[in-house]
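Sorry, can you check?
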Amino acid sequence: MPNQLVLHIQPEEGISLRFACQGPRRPDALGQRRHDFEYADYFGVQPSTGYETPAARLHDRRRHAFPRADMVEAGWCVVSPVLDVWKGAAAEKLSQLCLRYLGPREADDLLERDGRR
């Protein structure tokens, strides 16, 4: 039973945490617990589209909700060197993740060396 932190994106936004646990009376028996947070259930409304929230903030003049240009430029100063490496020859050595795949093959190999999966 793998431990998982699952992030749900639109249209049903939320977070699920799934983990294996042992009971106090039967420590040899593993069970799996799941804890869910669903945006619509907690707030009582369906999440909006990606455009509704920024449009409402602009309408209400809540400019603090938007990053300033210097903040955006500082962020790109951090991210740009990483993107440059990924474009280069070193990118071939990076593990590629596929959609719905739980991790890179190298992670499985690391566990298998210890007789785990």
